[in-house]
Amino acid sequence: MQPIKAILDFATGTIDKPAQYSSRRISELRGFFQEQPAVEAAIEQNDRLVYEVYEFEVPHDNGQLLFGSTIIHPGKVGTEYFMTKGHFHFKEDVSEVFICLRGEGQILIQTKEEDVQVLPMKAQEVVYSPPFTGHRLINTCPEEFVVATIGQADAGHDYGPILEKGMAKLFVERDGKTEIIDNPRYVE
Ligand code: ZN
Q: Residue 187 CA to chain centroid, in angstroms?
């Protein structure tokens, strides 16, 4: 395998070729946002782009690292801020590093046993998510929230527990302010 070199634009979060690109619209995030009537209305209206991901293409094998950049657009579905799906790892004893390049948001880090941490993140702040945790990025600011990530390539993304009941906290706007509330669907 050859080394990979690319340009990560710290202002926008884009990575030029050879990184691969993917994106998620609201319609691709059914089951992740909690307010169902608002989800369907938002899809009907214009089905906005919620986030984009650039990632180096590497084999998902032991010893490989996934390097990428996630751009979460500003917006809400109902009262819930735009966010990533969030995931746990199939290989649970792995960690991951998150580097905020732009904007201001939150990272939700939790174990399956409901040990929950919410850390605000802004540009230049770096967060280490330890083994046995799942994580989600939430954009609570009016511009793009851009976060670079480095994690083990063979960890795998497990969305199952999140599709079943979501994550422990919801990030909503109430009376123009960000509130972090318990997810009513989330029960042990
Ligand atoms: Zn992860």
A: 22
